[in-house]
Amino acid sequence: MEIIISIGAKISEYTVEPIGRQMGYLFHYKSNVENLRIQIQNLKCAKDKLQHSIDDAKKNGEEIEADVLHWLSRVDRMISQHTDCFVINEGRANMRCLSGQFLDLGSRYRLSRKAKKMAAEVGTAIQAAGGFNKVSYLPILQSIFEVKGYVAFQSRMSTFKRIMETLRNPNFDTIGVYGMGGVGKTMLCKEVAKQVKGQLLFSKVVMVTVSQTPNLENIQQEVAEKLGLNLNEKSIPARADRLRHRLRQEKKILVILDDIWEKLELQDIGISFGDDTNECKILLTSRSQDVLWNDMGVEQTFLVGVLSFSEATNLFNTIVADTIKNPNIQPLAIEIVKECAGLPIAIATVANALKNKSLPVWNNALQELRISTPTNIKGMHEKVYSSIKLSFDSLKSKEAKSLLVLCSLFHEDANIDIEHLLRQGTGWGLFKGVTKLEDARNKVVTLVEDLKTCCLLLDGDYSCCVKMHDVIRDVTISIASRDRHMHNFGSVAELEECIMDIDFRESTAISLSATDRNCHLPERLEIPKVKLFCMSSRSRPFWNLFMRFYDGAPYYRDLTIPNHFFQEMKELRVLELINICLRPLPSSFSFFENLQTLCLWYCDIGEVTIIGELKNLKILDLSGSNIEELPKEIGQLTRLRLLDLKYCSKLKVIRPNIISCLTSLQELNMDGTFIDWEVNEDNGERSNASLVELKNLHQLTALYLQIPYPSILPTDFFSEKLERYNLVIGAHVRYVGYDFEISKHLYLKLNKRDIFNEHGIEILLKKSETLFLNGLEGLNNLVHELDGEGFPQLKHLHFENNGGTQYIVESMEEVHACSAFVSLDILHLERLMNLEKICHGKLTEKCFGKLRVLEVDSCDKLKNLFSFSMARGLLQLEEIAVTKCKMMEKIILYEAEDDSQNVSYKTIQRIQFPQLRTLKLCSLPNLMHFYSQVETNCKSQRKDEQLVADFSLSFFNEKVTFPKLESLKLKGSASLKEIWCDQSAELHGDEEPLFVFSGLRGLTLSELPNLMHIWDDNYPKDRAFVSLMILQVLKCDKLKNLAPSWISFQNLIMLRVSNCHGMVNLLTSSTSKSLTHLRVMCISGCKSMTEIIANEESEMGGEIIFNQLVGFEVRRLPSLSCFYSGSFMMVFPKLKYVGISHCPEMRCLSRGAVSTPQLNKLTLLDEVWEDEGYSSGDDFIWPDRDGTELDFDELSLSDDEVDNYKQVQELIEGDINSTIRHLWEKDQVGLALQQLFME
């Protein structure tokens, strides 16, 4: 009986319970579907929350983590699946009910079951959204070596070549370049850096200036930043250990230390590569060979000598241009060139000073060059001194001379910001008669441009910055010291040496640009005539002052100032302190009756009430300091023109009515700081400032402000007077990245647009050069509704998160064309869910005429990007990126201008994008063509019409050309069958086939399941794809082979093919012979591939040589029998790494002879190893035009990376064929090796 009961229970368990569960899907249909709807809504909220973090990260230039992107993609599929399976079907079911039809129980069962399963998956996704530790990361900045003005002089070519040869030689680790100041050592080394990166000799090149007074901490910091390393340690030895550990992780790196004056202990800095340094080298430059040989111990040195007379003459004549044609000047030119002694910097400065000058000026210049002698400047050639002094004396403007002297007070190799010079120059009284700061700023820019024209200043590393050549700086410091009593000291010790000097009391300017934070300052400095005093702690370099790379990190503020230090500086007009402890402010501040500019940057500040006594102050800048409260006494500064509080993150209190008292204020900067504005209520007391106070500042022309809530904006707050602004309204954004050369930035995150007119925002919209729009629901036509004039000044437009806008530009009149965005440089459109067209209607020729970058993301109703009439005007376009636009079918839509329906192949006009360099089209499932015609309803087709049909089969055709295209990525388009069509036969005579993409350097094809052909068989062999360096083909199942036999990949460096299950082989042997520069190859997941290189039956004896191949992998290729089965000998002279995984039929590398002289072992990858061995995802940073961004150490697997996933097999008698055959045979009996070679 018990057995019967047990059997019955089991029957119930296996029948009744499952039946009940299945019936439950029918009974709980509504609750399951409703539960899924709620879960989907929660998922959308989680996605939106995460998207906000992503948006902020992107605006800060950060990259998004791969797992976050994967989560977003997965969530998009879930939401789309819910819409397709439930929202649409539910609507259909309701319609059937209304029409009296019976419910489809089968459908209800399936949907209910699917809803319950999806709800569980959605719940897991929601939980995962809260598990991300971070959504983004800061990418390592790639050093790009711009060598502006470099001339490859014939006399230096042999030196240059020998330096390059030595860098290739594994027997040399440290190399030196020496020569006198101004001879061109730095320029030559920058060219070396550029070339070694382009030739892939090193994966990374780091160049740092050491200078005459080296700052070890700054050198460490600069090297670390270029390696993407955060140095959090405080002491120099600890930082050195951290840096040393990071450098030893590099396989091939070149570190260039420029301008070394004396012995520098590299170990103390942390520049050390360990024992195996064959691939890592150091290049040093100095004015002294003794320093290189004796102090630094370099193994090989190279002299950079002066130019030959003919080279010097040619350089001089090129600069002075037509002036040299005057026969009376020509003999003077010969003598002047002789006086320059073959030194490039002397020639350039003198030539620029004399360009377009009259004969008497030339005569005087020659005389000045002959009588000038250098003062005591170490390493200075007398001819260099005299030539630079001549250029200085030749400056017509006293203001230009004074500005150049100000620049010399900065530390060596400093990036000198225009805003920094504005603050110093204004306080110093440099701009006589100029009362407006904007006029003074324009004056600074004009003077800087004049000085750059004279070669006395150089372009800085960042926009709005300049630099000084160290030789010009030395001469200018000498002139400033001797003639103007302006001194630049490298340390307090140097300062103390001069204190007892009689002339020191005559000093008018003192700069202590790199003070050690542990030093002790004298109790007071008796320099009664000083007008400018600048002091900076060593712990923070100057180039961060104006927030180029602000990260909010704490700075050392150990250096303190004695209470009476400034007591004898009563004439002081400019005081600049950087990274100093000012708790409390020295009482001697009260003696600054004449102070005009006070800058306390990144200082530790306590009580600042005493600043309110500085009644003549014009500029107060407390940027980055930790001030907590702005006291009421600041309101006494009625002459203040500029108040800068940016990035004072601890500032929480600004006493009421302080700002309104600053009636002379012209510029207010509160970027990244105070946001706790209070609303000005009637009869209500406030504890903090209100925005209404700013309305009393009638001279305000520049405003940098964050307003988190639009509701607190006063009526008519913004006015026409604003000439410079960066305003964030309606969003909590710590920092919005922007171009520093643009002066009007506006960021709006609003739910409605009816507040524009109330607060004056509409005025700003019309003036803005950069515009971020987030939201603005109810907006249909951007241009028509926000600015009928078409935003004529706008350069950058970023519009996102809007569900109503149909058109960005719509011509409201059929006859008259619309003119809009005539100055626009960058256009970014994202998540505009109702956008149907960017432009609708007729446009003028200038509309979008300056557009350089176009990015479109997640605009689901957009079917095409441009009409033909719009596209033909985009002559400046350099980059197109379109992603996740579900309805996108074509990029350019051709429409006959006369509205004719008779579109023939001949009548379709050609179009060219002459400047386009990057084209990225991803996740566009309906994309079919780049350029196609409007569909017609014609039933009959003549020959021409058939050509139109053929023309539309492929993605590209010769009707559209890209002469400068360098990077192409196509991903996630199921409709694409052909990339390039066969139209070459249509060309006649000498017509140039520009459509062959001869300049293309990077090509990625991914997730194109119906792609059958990539290349056009009729392309000219000598021009098609000859520049291609990176080729990736992923998940293209119908592709039979990679390339036809005619194609040549003579410049290909990296090849990756994955999950192309239709491929039987990869390349023909004839194509393989062209791969002379291939460095890395990875083939994986191709189920049908039997060999990598096809065996062509017509082959006779010969060899296939892969000259540069250093590594390749074959993984998960179940049908692969060998790499090559033909008769050619396979030669791999540089092959060092071979990885194999899951290739059970592979019995040898080649049926013929194989040569691998540098290969010692095979790496047998474990089954857990996947495609990320070479790169994560499909994106790859392919080389720029100089090849400077390619890093093969990151492509090939390091030993550390492989250790956890591999076994190693030493080559048997050095023969890879025998080794693979041995492993295959051993596999028959070895269980461990079975797991390595079988799926």
UniProtKB/TrEMBL annotation:
Record flagged with keyword Metal-binding: no
Entries under SUPFAM superfamilies matching the protein: L domain-like, P-loop containing nucleoside triphosphate hydrolases
GO MF entry, a single one: ADP binding
Keywords of the record: ATP-binding, Coiled coil, Nucleotide-binding, Plant defense, Repeat
Biological processes annotated in GO: defense response
Coiled-coil regions, chain positions: 33-67
Superkingdom of source: Eukaryota
Keyword Repeat: yes
Limits of the Disease resistance R13L4/SHOC-2-like LRR domain: 570-707
Sequence ranges assigned to domain Disease resistance protein At4g27190-like leucine-rich repeats in this UniProt record: 828-936, 956-1045, 1048-1150
NB-ARC domain boundaries: 159-322
Record family assignment: Belongs to the disease resistance NB-LRR family.
Protein name, entry field: Disease resistance protein
Origin organism lineage: Eukaryota, Viridiplantae, Streptophyta, Embryophyta, Tracheophyta
